From TrEMBL:
PANTHER family: L-THREONINE 3-DEHYDROGENASE. This is 2,3-butanediol dehydrogenase. GO terms for molecular function: metal ion binding; oxidoreductase activity. Transmembrane segments: none annotated. It comes from the Bacteria. Residues 8-340 form the Enoyl reductase (ER) domain. The keyword Oxidoreductase applies. Keywords: Metal-binding, Oxidoreductase, Zinc. The keyword tRNA processing does not apply. It comes from Desulfocucumis palustris.
Amino acid sequence: MLAAVLHGPYDMRVEEVETPVPGKGEVLLRIKACAICGSDLHAYKGKHQKVTFPRILGHEFSGVIEALSPEIKDFKVGDRVVVDTNKTCGQCPQCKAGRPNLCKTTVNFGFKMDGAFAEFVRVPEGINIYKMPESISFEEAALAQPLGVALNAVRRRAVVTVGDTVAVLGAGPIGLSAAALAKACGAQVLVTDTEDFRLEIAKKMGADEVVNVLKDDVVGKSLEFTRQNGFDKVIEAVGGMQDTTIQQTTQIVKPGGLIVVVGNFSGNKATLRITEFKDREIEIRGSRGQHGTVPYCLKLIESGVIDVKPMITHTIALDGIVKGLERLEEQKGRTMKVIVKF
Ligand SMILES: [Zn+2]
Ligand SMILES: [Zn+2]
């Protein structure tokens, strides 16, 4: 099969590799769409802590079942499906407590096992597989994974509900998904970013107000938006410059408010004025990946409650993947989701 193999930092080659064979309890998936994620870009640059080489990246994908082990009765060849991106142990205290996204021995597609920038992927036993609704496209279904990450942040960690005021810092795919989900939960939503292009997408996806932090006063706009009280919930989805953005969250959250950090960049640090958390009783929570949210995301896309299409700015073929990664890096102001279509 043809696959994009990352041999080392900045060394990705589209080449012939052996097609995987599904073993007992396993499924072979013919990939139809795989979106490039910010973390794929980190991995490409050799900055992702989990990736070992050589590795086929790609964890936001959908496809068709090509072959499967005879023990699997719930699916058949030809089914259009999405799968969970992690294999967790199922045995540790976190897995048993219903929080498998915190499992210490997680193995993820595209990081510790081969992912979906390839014609086929072998899905190991123990990974959940979900049938796609008839009406949604493979590209939309591939975005159920990042939407699931945002759903974990918005519902499980921030517990956004009707009437909340919510700020989302960062209009990347996770931030945009979080804004759309918060809106769907009945919140009033403000989104910040440094690029007008990204803020325009935020408006299309339901943001009530957008602020370009390079042009506008975030604190002033936030107080105006929340009638001088500050936000009930603030979701940090930037990741790259948290020493700045986490400070910002404390300036715009209300007394007694909640900050949820979903933005991700390995090695990041933030300096916090702890007295501010104490005196104003602010809470801060992390949000890691997702578990079990994909079926809900497929339903949200199918029903039209969430439209992920405004995020899809480019579709490319597998042999254009290096250009796709470069585009994501260099043309941030004109690129959101780049999807490899097969
Ligand atoms: Zn991702
Ligand atoms: Zn576990």
